[in-house]
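Researcher: Please predict.
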Amino acid sequence: MQLNLGIPKGSLQDSTIKIFKEAGYDIRVSSRNYYPSINDDEISCMLIRAQEMARYVEGGQLDCGLTGLDWIKENRADVVEVCELTYAKASYSTVKWILAVKENSPYKSVKDLEGKTIATEVVNLTKDYLAANGVSANVEYSWGATEVKVPDLADAIVEITETGSSLRANNLVIIDTVLETTTRFIANKKAYEDPAKRKKMEDIIMMLQSVIDAVPKVCIMMNVPESNLNEILEILPTKNPTISHLAKGEWIDIMAVIDKNELRSLFPKLIRLLPSQE
């Protein structure tokens, strides 16, 4: 069995390869080579731009691959969306395709763009969005530098944003969200019906998802007197920590997994409960 896996080339490439590496799959990309090596004899990798991934998975040239929900919809691809994997170029979060105009623009909503020109890389996605809102406008494909096209070359743009920094730098304001998108693991329908290939895909997804799920978590461990246990359990966010007795004395070991953003408020409280070392 050989699984042909598409790795997204471009903005998602580095973050995808990093997650695979942390999941135990060492993908190595050589200069000017679109066939990366991987430390799994059952997988063959190919670098394909995310914009085209769904098309090649649908056509069967690839058994599976990773791309955004946006490009599945843009290509109107008939593929199996096996799993949502919430990560992007710079974060483990969703990204948005937004409708934006210049600051101080007279256009305040999508309804104001009736008969106007919108520049974007996602023409089908934008047309579907306009149709859903009952608006008819001229949608032009943008080959890049979309942010600079308003107001001289277009009245509005539909552009992707993760942090909003590029929009702010070009004095643009968002008037609506067209689509909130995440990375998806997709499969060719025929390949997904193959038991061996399907199992291999599920194994990969299990490992990738475990890496993503672990990102916002941290494990804390502490040795405390058993007499402090109830007080500590009251302030721990998790209600089922691992507790074990130490070999000697009346002390116990507590281990708990919590969200990283809870640590800064929790840690001082825990320290105050511990006996003084003086």
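Model: The longest strand covers residues 172-181.
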